[in-house]
Sequence to fold (297 residues):
Amino acid sequence: MTPDTLVDRFINYLMVEKGLSANTIESYSLDLARYLDFLKKSGINEISDEDTSHILKHLIALRKEGLNARSRARHLVTLRGFYKFLVQEKIITHDPAQMVDLPKLGLKLPDLLSVEEIQELLKIPDLTTLRGQRDAAMLELLYAAGLRVSELLQLKIQDINLEAGFVRVFGKGSKERIVPIGNFAREKVRDYLTYGRPFLLKTYQSRYLFVARAGKPMTRQGFWKLVKQYASKAGLHKKITPHSFRHSFASHLLEAGADLRSVQLMLGHVDISTTQIYTHVAKEQLQKLHEKYHPRG
Fold:
């Protein structure tokens, strides 16, 4: 069988037997397409038990192309799954990916904002303008619920309940979660819905909570630019992205004593080990505070 046929069988197995989400399937497909392209350019027309050297060369090529260790590790995980499937199906007898080690990732501590920095940044939007009301509501909600930027931008009107004080979020794999939002975010979103949104929409209709021109949802790039502008106006010189709010949300909760399981549920992490990075972040912050303020730190 050709490599393309084997990949098609593997993808079909992931969809039918494993029931993986559409996003995960797409990720596997793109990784394998890239691998097959590498094999074809290298003059390799079949998959075999002896592909270890090809896998290593592919990972080296990815590094030369500028992919970081985390992205290369994801590619290797995809290839491991593919070759494991071929062994299970008795298409090959030996797994050539088994002996290839994952790239060393280290502990990637996310960029964080302190509580004071968050408060300063949230003061910046001009509430006397329509866009300022929208931006204030977006930033407050992003931090209050620890949302991914894609989750924020895809929120619909019916996803937020201001009376009960929660937002319904559809995260990765379309998994639904309910997250409380607190009084500050409720107030800003209520003002935006009452004043800002109707005037921004004008004669247009939109099911999205946050709108840009002609009733369309804001793009990731557009929102990233807003965050960068507000961070600059607040005098913050860190590398701040929309995701910094999510990192800060988790870290601030843990520093204040929230339990890891609750933070996991609010973030929408399937595996608690993903959430555990924030315990390291919190410990690092506490260690810095101790060193700075303790008489014998």
In short: The beta strands are 160-161, 166-170, 176-180. Residues 125 and 132 are 5 Å apart (CA to CA). The radius of gyration is 23 Å.
